[in-house]
Amino acid sequence: MMRQKTGMMRRTKRRRLPSEPMRIQDSLAAKKRLIERELERLLSRDDSRLFPVMRYAVLPGGKRFRPLLLLSSGACFNAAPRLLLPFGCAIELIHNYSLVHDDLPSMDNDDFRRSKPTCHRAFGEDLAILAGDALLTLAFEVMAGAAFPAVALRRKQEAIRVISRSAGVDGLIGGQVLDITLTPEKLTRPKIDELIRKKTGALIAAAVEVGAILGRARPAERRDILDYGVNIGQAFQVRDDILDSIRKKKTGIPDRPDYVSFAGEEKARKRLEGLVRRAVSTLEGFSSRAEELRYLSASLLAPDPETADS
Ligand code: IPE
Ligand code: IPE
Ligand code: MG
Ligand code: MG
Ligand code: MG
Questions:
Q1: Angle at which helices 202-214 and 65-76 pack, to 10 degrees?
Q2: Structurally, how many domains does the chain consist of?
Q3: 173 CB near ligand 2 (under 6 Å)
Q4: Domain harbouring 181, CATH code
Q5: Is 125 part of any domain?
Q6: Interval between CA 302 and ligand 4 midpoint (Å)
Q7: How many CA atoms lie within 13 A of 56 on its CB side?
Q8: What pLDDT, in 10s, does the model give residues 249-280?
Q9: What is the pLDDT of residue 19?
Q10: Cα(205)–Cα(153) distance, rounded to whole angstroms?
Q11: Cβ(214)–Cβ(83) under 8 Å?
Q12: Would residue 93 count as lying in a domain?
């Protein structure tokens, strides 16, 4: 199945995803609407100078890949959407904070994100830093405040633990530290893999794992779904590196460590395909329950509308 999609990202071969049933797309679109509405609600306060900045950073424009993964993973185990949504939104808030800080002059020094000036370009570095901080803390407020039945409190606590860890030194932050400290001559395959796994893979894997936790997956199912998440998380960053290299618009520190600069574009594409194939193979035991997760992984091999030229 995946072999058929080989090369789908190539600019000259822009094809549609294979004829997946419309109902998968409809179901994902409905989930995305739910996420957008809840994010708007969470950011609707107007009592601080910071909220317009936070709204600018989050609304609109993201693909919402992580909360979609969380909701789809939870759906595999029949978790109630009302239990999943606060965690999906919290992960999206953490992701958006990380983008605001990632774009800062002292990090990647980027001027544009989602076709708009970056947060610090629009509001100044001071407010951008504070808006990022506020998005991160809001995420924890949202998770801690999520209404849960008393019998499920242990699951809520475990979900918060998994997300906290993925966003911290062993995950996103640790990966960003590697990103700024590794130099091309220090790069090895294990190092670049660790970088990718931490800075981007960890939060994505956590999104998938939390769906399983909240859905009371059995330990073996949780392991399989986490395996899927780890592979898809790495695939996501390899794809991002390929797209960045196509856009040729990296304005940050030259020779930043990424998968394309390390291995070249062809190898990066092969690695992306291999990671997606492995992710899909871990879902074998889930049959039709996991069709949305399969679809989301296949979307990583689809052409990107921004970089496709036809
Ligand atoms: C971009 O993430 C940054 C990476 C971690 C690679 P996304 O591609 O998910 O960004 P949005 O949220 O859809 O804009
Ligand atoms: C971003 O990686 C990773 C995090 C924000 C944690 P990149 O620096 O490659 O993301 P883009 O290309 O700016 O979206
Ligand atoms: Mg970066
Ligand atoms: Mg960046
Ligand atoms: Mg990038």
A1: 30
A2: 1
A3: no
A4: 1.10.600.10
A5: yes
A6: 21
A7: 22
A8: 554 445 678 899 899 999 999 999 999 999 99
A9: 53
A10: 22
A11: yes
A12: yes
